[in-house]
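pipeline/complex-builder :: batch 7 item 3
reading input block
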Amino acid sequence: MEYNFLEIEKKWQKYWSDNEVFKVEIDPSKPKYYVLDMFPYPSGAGLHVGHPLGYIASDIYSRYKRLKGYNVLHPMGYDAFGLPAEQYAIQTGQHPAVTTEKNIARYREQLDRIGFSYDWSREIRTCDPSYYKWTQWAFLEMFAHWYNIETDRAEKISDLITVFEKEGNLNIKASCSNVKKFTADEWNQFSEKEKADILMCYRIAYLGETSVNWCAALGTVLANDEVKDGISIRGGYPVEQKKMLQWQLRVSAYAERLLKDLDSIDWTDSLKEMQRNWIGRSEGAEMIFKVSNGLQEFDMEIFTTRADTVFGVTFMVLAPESDWVDKLTTPQQRKAVEDYVNYCKKKTERERIAETRKVTGIFTGSYAVNPFTNEKIPVWISEYVLAGYGTGAIMAVPAHDSRDYAFAKQFNLPIVPLIEGCDVSDESFDAKNGVMCNSGFLNGLSVEQAIPAAIEEVEKRGIGWRKVNYRLRDAIFSRQRYWGEPFPIYYKDGIATPLGFEHLPLKLPEIDKFLPTEDGEPPLARAGNWTFEGYPLEKSTMPGFAGSSAYYLRYMDPHNDNSLVSKEADEYWKNVDLYIGGTEHATGHLIYSRFWNKFLFDLGYVCESEPFKKLVNQGMIQGRSNFVYRIKGTNKFVSCGLKDKYDTTEIHVDVNIVSNDRLNIDAFRKWMPEFADAEFILENGEYICGWAIEKMSKSMFNVVNPDMVCDKYGADTLRMYEMFLGPLEQSKPWDTNGIDGVHRFLKRFWRLFFNKDKFSVSYEKASIKEYKILHKLIKKVEDDIENFSFNTSVSAFMIAVNELYETGCNKREILEPMLILLSPFAPHVAEELWSLLGHGDSISKAIFPEYIQSYTVEDTFEYPVAFNGKMRFKLTLKRDLPKSEIEDLVAKSPETLKYLGEGKISKIIVVPNKIINIVF
RNA sequence: GCUCGGGUGGUGGAAUAGGUAGACACGCAGGACUUAAAAUCCUGUGGGCAGCAAUGUCCGUACGGGUUCAAUUCCCGUCCCGAGCACCA
């Protein structure tokens, strides 16, 4: 019987869907396991073979865990709000909901063909009102809470008001925006508006003025992680800095917890490192410098990590946007300073980055006093100091900071070295080592000792304090776009007021056009009556990450209309055990999700403080492009190996008409009219194409659609081949060349169960040799799956099948467990053979240990052997050899063994993976 | 510039608490079956040298050193490639 994958796959996909085989419910009798994929944004282009890589891996793992007796939650959904659908809507007038719906249908069709074991009854879409109700709800909760630094958690705003009424904010330690101190009396006399403004400074979701990434082409602001090199990631448009009033989430309040809890989760080091960099914790001190513009004296705070270098401070620098600029500019310098500040303002983020090494700046005219040397030092302004970090002002130590050094050289400012023997004539000495000099009481100390000593002294003199700074900023949460969640906020007498829970979801209104209004308001302003009880509703919408921040919780209880997730579901499913997705979300989604989860944890809605216990990053699949070589000025094409003999032009050719780098000439002639009468110069009767690894994209003609692979080889081959391609985490090109090998394996496996055309499986007892083949395979595949080394487990199957061919084995005792083991990888084939073996139900319901127990063999064997020596010794041998053979091997083993001399080996330990430890 | 990864046949890649490097697969070459093709199966396949041959022998995991009886694996230095961060004081 032929291995008819098309028929088999269709049959079992229908069976799974008709019988809801993968539907899961809470089942306290079984251990739970939650496997999650990063849900896709359904783009118009559909899936290419790169997209399912992670999904296949997670599916194999899910199926494997089911075989191991776990109750596996493995859901899928769509991150359906977003810019591309909206941009498309602007161009075509087509409503984003319509295109999104269409794209989702296409995605679903493609996903279904690959045979995933998703519980589709739990599907969610972020653009669905019943889903975004809970996004809006979470926002309202953030609006209704503030961050108490003393208890280190989010608490109710209503409790904060109670404190304000009793004692003002004098004793409150909160993570908040700049807010003045007030007493209870003062609080009680504030107007409603004043109170609202103060509370806004404390809320975790708050409205505040901030410098934002403004993308004029997209007409919206973007978060830091949505911008790279001054260019928007979606669309690639320039981005500029602009001050705007925006909704923000106080992510910064959670910086320390986000950092610390990285230690408790099983993510790759590189990913954790990225998050650590993004959070950017740095320990140091805030210090007060006295500054004077000649008329007035001020205390100016700066942040430094190098308090030890304070004796070398020879000037101060302000960020151009700093509030100090205005206060410290003297009349004589006013014009020059204004010119400089305007010059900085005009620059886009991109220009600033491009000119990183250009040193610019201007003197304010004011001076500060170095608190340790009492020297008068000038205060400058320069764009190399950032307004958003620290206090927006620095003490400059040119001898030991390369940026200060460049600035000092440019403007001829003094450079005072502070470390013995360092040479600062060409460059600064930035390293944190050496012995201090020119530094008063710090002289003779190492840098390591000097830093804390200096901070101690600063605190003693009352001119500063220890301080930890973070690079992580609050997340800007407003987007001036249509296709996103509306804010459940209206403005009553200018006060931002939350909608009551009973009014959720606040649905997106219909509008005529998806563009901003003529006077620059967001598209929602076009809605005829975008008001609540006569008051205007917020016109921006939430960003893409809003809907994806808590979706993993919703899967646990997707149809619950009373809460995001029920207590019962949350306590059973807890958090995601395995999360698979790309690295591109390292500093976006994965930070926001962790923040969101911690917030809900503080409020008691979820029982775990981290959302994703283990995270695996799958690599990207690149395209493998093919080329043909046209001889210039002709319609004649020369095969790759001969192309150097001619003057040719390299032309991309559709990889779908090339096989193993051989061009299908007929298909090529039909591919494009201009090639209809093409002529060819062949090598050995074939046209060989050139190739290159490039990004998979339409314009390179290297996009491979999974549907095509399923048509030609079947989903099981696609699944196994994607795994066989190489390590999961590694990026690698899609190379169709090797796929025949995997397909051949499946056909060989299939034929093990057949004799000629007849299904034929023997009930004979298996031989020792055959047991060894099976158990070697089980051991290997289980270890590999646990380590996400799927490529080597595919190889292990191939080896086992080759070996079974050698023994001519068709014994049920061997083939049945093997089939179960293969089922996570190639579920359709496994189901078909399983049913041919006479099983009534799905192999997906089988529990592996039940089939394997009777065959289990000992893991460790010990063989006493004579040896004397001093070291532990290992020798690679095959597993579970008879004792005599081992001794024999030891006796006549390689040179290295002879070295051991005539001693006594007490025993040799054979551990499962072929290693022998010789102990004595 | 800084921080992580990584350099193994013609190709994708195996093998690291140090122990026969190149599993498995692709490709290639030869063979069987076939009128032929597809499919399938078998054999060979890192390089050099010697041999009719089985085989023997030397060199080989980016490069140069080191530790060790033994190094793809550990240590030091150099060169390349990839990823992330980048005026974060």
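note: Confidence is low (pLDDT under 50) at residues 853-886, 891-920 of chain A.
queue -> next item
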